[in-house]
Amino acid sequence: MRRRLLSLLLSIALPASLAAQRPGEVAGRVAEAGTDAPLEMAAVDLPELGIRVWTDGAGRFAIRGVEEGAHRVRVTRAGYVGWSAQVRVRNGEAAWLSIPLARDVLLLDTVSAVTTVPDPQRDGTVVTRATIEASGARTAADVVGRAPGATVRESGPTGSRTVSIRGSGADAVLVLVDGAPLNDPVSGEADLSAVPASSIERVTVLPGAHSARYGARAGAGVVLIETRAGEVPPAAEVSGGTLGARAARGEWGAPVGSAAIQAGAHTRAVDGRFTYERDPSDPTLVHRTNADEFEAGAFAALTGRLAGGELRVRGGWETLKRGLPGTGHTPSPDARQWMERGRASLAWRRGPASALVSGAVQRARYADPAPPFGLAYDDTTRVRMVNARAESSTGFRRGRLGLGVDALAQHVEAALSEQAPRTQYGGGVFAHASDEARVLRRTFALSAEARVDRDGVSGNWYASRALTVRMDGPVRVQLANRSAYSPPSLGDQFFRGGVGIVPNPDLRPERIPNEWEIGASTAAMLGNVSLSAYATAYDSDVRGMIVWMRRFNDRWSPGNIDAHRRGIDLRADAVLPGKGVRVNASYSLARITYDRQGRDDDGVQVVYRPRHSGWMGAEWGGGPWRAEARARYTGPRNPTPTEANVIPGFWATQLRVARDWRMGEWALSTALDVDRALDEKGHLIAGYPEPGRRARLDVRIQRTPLPSRNRPR
């Protein structure tokens, strides 16, 4: 009788208890102790769950989907004492934290060393929403271009914009938007100009071979783009500028019960006409035509809860129309591109477990009835793609162990040869583990990653690995060994042959069997100036790099060559917190050379890979005013696999001045952005002229309620 009574009580109480359990949230604001100034880019960790987020420009953060119970919260930022506390999360409630960070320096004569330093080698270069808005970035290309070692390649002011990292081809850089690949299945390249900066919450650039974690095409680096979702304040913006540029966008968000929704739209048009000199040796002025562009898009997003975790749903549609004017010396006055693309994604996360399902459809048409050479063409490409990914991890002692799987299915209809596969199925499985240990008063962290991928074209399997050792302290040091691969694109293997070009279906994937990387980062206080710096050196061989080359009968075809890739990335920042001044600089050396012993081109820099690049900038913000000046250097490039006819390097400058006005709960911002401020006309790729100085005026209004010190959130 006693056992029956106990069973009856459990059957009544247990379902009610389980039904009532809902994850909570840890949220709050991080500010400087004594001044209450918000601290951006402070790292907020739940170590036992392996979750890390970063504070925004207002010092705020939120970690959703946290299970009920006690959790350790750790907050760190360069130049400040770390903060740690045990926080209890109650069933379905938000634990709000107001965290003051005090400055903490260890005096060494006149220099102060900071014990906690953000690690660019481990976390990559992170660009937050606040920085994106302050920079005036128009597309994802403008954001990614701020990362050391990243070179944005463009073919004129309205052409596509792709990224090269450490001297790679654009098809060896994997770009993920909310976890879904942006890389085109035909060309293998990701056009960053197709992602408006207004839709981005955060961008992370991870240089180096990262196939062990992210899969195919991550041979030279990964770009992670996180879009905005959930509740955002209503805002509208209009802008106009030179080259007949005009743009408008709007966004809106609001809570709906326990969820939040967001929607937005944008449009942009550029006439693109300008005058340029036909050739460096020919000063004849030519009027540039067919360089116009029109783009428009809309999106909607939802953030809520499902099955005890956080749910994010996002969908959008984009359309693009632009001219393809061709090179300056061989113009294409009638070539056009039309593209329509729809994307949708559903992401779910509960603690260390996450899942993603995304899909995309794309239709692109390229046409030229009278090209300057070759035959007329009018080709249409249609792509349907579905991607799924799931991952989970668990903690043990001071470490974590995780497993994951992803799958990709795509159908491509394009002007390719008959050998080209129309439907492909690929994917991979991966695992990662990490642990920490104290040795000689130093904390050492060890992480390992392994992955096996199936190529959707050949059906072959490829393995990748990564092993990293990190030593924490005033100077944080990291040593890594990785491998990676990047498959040939459908366009390289199966493009339709034409005048002077032939396909190569026998192309092999690019392989990086061994990449060694060592990096160090540190931060210090020199008087009232906060200093931080990091340096990375890398060395690897690229087996089977895919490069277009001249072959028999003067025909061009893609082929595999071996290359050496080695270089360094440097960055330094100096901040005067009380003055609102920041000065920073970056330099990259990417020595990527042919490895063909006995050939004249052995040791020559691969075509259009600048060996030297970098930038320097200064920012100031005082009261309602903000200003930024930036100069970027692109080093000499080889247009052929020889040292002859080297294109000289060039500088490009950018100036931006902005002012804010407060009107109750609304903020009005105006900004003047001048690109190529000194009328520089250098260009990365020979033959694609630049118009020189360009200016843009932005006017933005946004609802920003005054903060309440008594909220809870």
What does this structure look like?
The chain has 713 residues and is mainly β. The protein is 6% helix and 58% strand. The chain is built from six helices and 40 strands. It has a 22-stranded antiparallel barrel. The chain has a five-stranded mixed sheet with strand order 10-15-16-13-14. Strand 28 and strand 29 (442-454) form a beta hairpin. The longest helix is centred in the first third of the chain and has 19 residues, at 2-20. The chain is globular, with a radius of gyration of 26 Å. The chain starts with a helix and ends in a 10-residue tail after the last strand. 37% of the residues are buried.
Give the biggest sheet: 22 strands, antiparallel, barrel
- Overall mean pLDDT score? 84
Tell me the structural class: mainly beta
User: Which percent range fits the helix content?
Assistant: under 10%
Percent strand? over 45%
Number of helices: 6
Gyration radius, rounded: 26 Å
Shape type: globular
Write the layout of secondary structure elements.
Blueprint: H1 2-20, E1 24-32, E2 43-46, E3 51-54, E4 60-66, E5 69-76, E6 83-89, E7 94-101, E8 106-108, E9 111-113, H2 120-123, E10 125-128, H3 129-135, H4 140-144, E11 150-154, E12 161-165, E13 173-177, E14 180-181, E15 200-207, H5 211-214, E16 221-227, E17 235-241, E18 245-256, E19 259-270, E20 274-279, E21 282-288, E22 293-306, E23 309-323, E24 336-350, E25 353-368, E26 377-396, E27 399-413, E28 423-439, E29 442-454, E30 461-471, E31 475-486, H6 490-494, E32 510-526, E33 529-550, E34 556-576, E35 581-594, E36 612-622, E37 625-634, E38 650-663, E39 666-675, E40 694-703
Parallel strand pairs: 1-7, 13-16
Antiparallel strand pairs: 1-4, 2-3, 2-5, 5-6, 8-9, 9-32, 10-15, 11-12, 13-14, 15-16, 17-18, 17-40, 18-19, 19-22, 20-21, 22-23, 23-24, 24-25, 25-26, 26-27, 27-28, 28-29, 29-30, 30-31, 31-32, 32-33, 33-34, 34-35, 35-36, 36-37, 37-38, 38-39, 39-40
